[in-house]
Amino acid sequence: MSTTSAWTSVPHEPPSRSDWAARARYAPTDFVTLLWRERWLMLGVFMVIFCIGLAFATTMKKTYTASSSLFVRLGQEYVYEPRAGDAARGAVPDVDQVIQSEAEILGSSELRERVIRKVGFGKIFPAHATKYSRASPEGKHKLIAEGRDALARNLKIETAPDNSIIRLSYSNKNAEVAEKVLNTLLEEYLIYRRSLLIGSSDNGLERQRDIFADKLAETDTAYQAFLSGNNIGDFTAQKTALTQLQAQAESQKYATEAQLQDRRGRLASVRGELARTPADMVLYRDSDMSASGKLAQLKLDREGLLSRYRPGTQPVRDIEAQISQLEQGIASGRTNGDGARRSGPNPIWQTLQSTQNDLAAEVAALQQAQVAYSQQVQDVNQRLLRLSELEPTFNQLSRDRDVLSSNVRDFTVKEQQDQAQRRMSAEGSDNIRIVQRAVAPSTGKSLKKPILVLAFLFAAFSAACAGLVRMLLRPGLQTPASAARTLNLPVLATAAYKR
Q: Mutual orientation of helices 291-308 and 314-332 as an angle, nearest 10°?
């Protein structure tokens, strides 16, 4: 005998007030039972979602990944060379900064566009080849921009701290295209980095050197005009020569003044002595001494004159003439002893007169020399004063010439060094070595299995969620155990529902 339970409810029948008043309470075992009741709904949801995932997985094609690696070390292009001056010359970054810089260059959009244009848009993206060939220039530019983004998504650049290796990988549905794109990227990278790091040949140094050369030519013209306008051949040499000439002229002037004072003093002394000395004197008396005695006296006088005057002077020659006449008279027998008296010119007076004439001539010569040296010193001083007035302008022009000459020389050296560096850099990058070039991968990777696994898990999760939602949305109490827990009353009997 079966009875209708008071806690069972008929589907599609509105719940009573008591059903709304109590909230159903479930145990883990109730979920298993209730979800099993919704197995067909859950199976349907699972199959629909899994079939959709399976269909999507079948559309996935294999992708081939080409790999390559670069060895990067510090190069000359990272050494700081200032355009002017020597401030911070030779400064270099650390290795990690160099690696990051090279990685940024490898991932630049300009480099990716170069690769697309060199390999060919249609070869890299065959699905859009027809569209690209028929597009307008604006449309092609837009497609290339989209291709750059697509290339960036499939290109992977990996670096590690304290490691000089950069690893690159590129994925494409065609293995040969993956190899071609990655090798072309490496080739264009070596070219692009040189033009980027070393710079283009814009002849900036040459232009700056020409500017300084023009200024130097103008300064040289002003310098030569200054020298020719002031009748100066070599300013420094002329000033040095005038300084030496001034010293010599002043020294000679002072020496001449000293000699003039000496000659004037001697002349005054000789004149005084001459005034006190008679012009004539008694040469000898026959009554006083014999001729031989007179001859001996004259010889003594000659010895006295020789002690005062040099041989050959006028006093010495006069007394020697007297001695010669007396000797000739004695030899001829003309001398007698009648006591005759004989007088003649005083040799001392004659000597003093001759000395006075010589000193007067020397004084006159020294006076003329003094005037000449004074005029010479005055002329030299005037020329030195004129050079001193011109010296600031000369120094300014010379300083400008030296500075401009130094700038022209420095920029010429820098230009030649820059050209040499460009030629060496154009021949190759010694600091960048390709460790491994890309080769066509033999095996590809596909996302079918991961998509199938994800589709299975998502379908199972969705089916479980659908079963739980359906279970929780059913009205009434679904199991006796849930009813007993909810109403806190024992369930005495259950009966099956009959439609």
A: 160
